[in-house]
Write a structure and sequence with these properties.
With 248 residues, this protein is of the alpha/beta class. It has 2 domains: 150 residues, Rossmann fold; 66 residues. The protein contains 9 helices and 9 strands. The protein has a 6-stranded mixed sheet, sandwiched between helices. Helix 1 crosses helix 5 and helix 6 crosses helix 7. The N and C termini lie far apart (62 Å). The model has no long low-confidence stretch (mean pLDDT 88).
Length: 248
């Protein structure tokens, strides 16, 4: 049985974070994380792993990108066994001379804030590279960041998720190379019928040479239809996909 872990918040984080997260997560605790090389937030997952999250605003990133990168590198090297999430908070837009921070108001409107010389294209390229080492999440405000943190924590307390599984079937490859070879020759041939053909005729060659010149193991191509679910049309399709010149 999974024991629900504490959601830890570093003492340097805004007091509003605790106030926003506490009603959603009962087991919230404020402690010193940064002094031990951890990021701003830390929690354990249902599968026994530990996650940490570093929250930065666009203003912090644009004013000193090197400092942010150094901090992320410190988290990754100090605790390499802990998965890191980088949360970038705020709104920006590109100007003729750089990147400007937009301040989101409580009424939903935004006002212009500080402008920085850094080009937005360069920042996005940096974020893309950082994404190779840690997960990157963007939010528009501190309130949104709190919602995101609660969602991440709650998702990690579940052992099983059905995201994508509802609409996308899990892909499994048959371990029998004869079956995968036969399926590769003819994309329209499914695993079940390919397996049935192999069980009956042993090798892809015996199947694909059926009725061919010389002395094939299977004398007539339609002898393959003795396998349940295999009809003449499918036989012709498989052999045609294989490139048999005698199949019209």
């Amino acid at each position: 049985m999974h024991i629900v872990s504490n959601f830890l918040i570093d003492t340097n984080e805004p007091v509003g974070v605790f106030a926003a997260v506490k009603p959603v997560l009962d087991n919230v605790r404020v402690t010193s994380l940064n002094v031990d090389g951890y990021a701003d937030y830390k929690w354990d997952t249902a599968n026994g792993k530990t996650k940490q999250c570093e929250r930065k605003t666009w203003g912090e990133l644009l004013s000193n990108l090197d400092k942010v990168e150094e901090q992320l590198q410190r988290h990754l090297t100090k605790h390499p066994q802990i998965e890191l999430v980088f949360m970038l908070e705020g709104i920006v837009h590109q100007t003729n001379t750089g990147t400007q921070v937009l301040n989101k108001q409580s009424n939903g409107f935004v006002t212009k804030g500080m402008e920085y010389r850094s080009r937005l294209s360069g920042i996005f390229a940096w974020l893309y590279e950082i994404g190779k080492y840690c997960e990157v999440i963007q939010t528009t405000s501190l309130q949104e960041s709190c919602v995101a943190l609660c969602s991440l924590y709650n998702a990690d307390q579940k052992l099983n998720h059905n995201t994508l599984h509802r609409h996308i079937k899990q892909l499994n490859f048959n371990t029998d190379p004869r079956i995968t070879t036969l399926m590769g020759v003819s994309p329209g041939l499914g695993e079940v019928r390919a397996g049935a053909l192999i069980n009956q005729f042993s090798t892809p060659w015996n199947i694909l040479s059926a009725g061919w010149k010389g002395e094939p193991v299977v004398k007539n191509k339609y002898d393959l239809t003795i396998v349940n679910g295999i009809g003449k049309t499918l036989v012709d399709n498989v052999l045609r996909n294989f490139g048999r010149p005698d199949i019209d």
